[in-house]
Amino acid sequence: MSDLEDFDLGEADPAAKPPKDEPGFPIGILSAVLLLVVVVVGAAFLVLRRPAVETVAVSPTPLQSSVTASPVGSPSPAAPPTSLPPLAESDAFVREQAAGLSSHPQLAIWLASRGLVRVFAAAVLNLADGRSPAPLVPFLAPKAKFFAVERGGRLIADERSFAQYDDFANAVASLDTPGVARVYKTCLPLLNTAYAELGYPNADFSPTLERAIARLLETPVVEGDIGLRKDPLFYRYADPALERLSLAQKQLLRTGPRNARLLQGKLRDLYRELGFTPHS
Q1: Are strands 147-151 and 11-12 parallel, antiparallel or unpaired?
Q2: What predicted TM-score, i.e. pTM, was given to this entire model?
């Protein structure tokens, strides 16, 4: 069933007309990247129109949870001791900590959402398990459906559909990586509390974040035309190797090569800044 979360059927347009401004296409992964940036604050990728079948809820429920990111430079210092508010009252604290991470206007919009720590913890868990965090971040939904075009007798992804993710990718790329790492270390006790609510008492949240980033960094960046095949309700990748990727990875791929590179670059930087072990 999770395969049905593939490309929302937009329009195959032989004339290659610009995408119509209609609500639709998925964004799941970007949500994680965004959340990695917003709460942690860290970084990812795409909001699905329909709830993902295996998406983890933010309410206390048992669940489960790899990763990669990187800035080159001296490691950020450990976060100084900070008096943390209760988890239920932590939004204002997180917004204050995140102030100054980027001058991009999208950051303020992202931070205006509620339950930042809980949403981030659940979204990262979903990503680590290959699920989409899309239902947790509806404010990331793109304004237009995904579009495909026919070229040379092949159905391919319309490159203009990728442009709707440019602003998101630019905002993520603008984040101060050492600053994000400091905010993460400061907020880690809150994240551990939220993680316990999800069914992981006395567990460290960081390995789950590491696994989530690693999964996204393992996503191939496809240059050139991306072949598709059309099912009754969705587009799927024509390449079986791409179609076998996890839902989260396929959603990252849908942002287009330019945006995927930007997002993965910030994730690599963050991965290194947090001291995670590189995967061979």
Answers
A1: parallel
A2: 0.72
Residue 112, both tokens: 């205006």
Region for residue 140 given its phi and psi (left: phi exceeds 0; alpha: psi -120 to 50; beta: otherwise): alpha
Q: What is the mean pLDDT of residues 211-232?
A: 91
The DSSP code sequence of the chain is: -GGGGSEE--EE-TT-PPPP--S----HHHHHHHHIIIIISBB-EE--SS--TTPPPSSS--------B---SSPPPPPPP--PPPGGG-HHHHHHHHTTS---HHHHHHHTSS-HHHHHHHHHHHHHTT---GGG-GGG--SS--EEEEETTEEEE-GGGGGGGHHHHHHHHTS-HHHHHHHHHHHHHHHHHHHHHTT-TT--SHHHHHHHHHHHHTSPPPPS--BEEE-SSEEEESSHHHHTS-HHHHHHHTT-HHHHHHHHHHHHHHHHHTTPPPP-
pLDDT in tens, 133-145: 777 766 666 666 7
Question: 36-55: buried (b, 16+ CB within 10 Å) or exposed (e) per residue?
Answer: bbbbbbbbbbbbbbeebeeb
Contact 232, 142 (CB under 8 A): no
How confident is the model over 181-210, as a mean pLDDT?
Answer: 95
Measured from the Cβ of residue 265, the count of other Cβ atoms closer than 10 Å reads 18
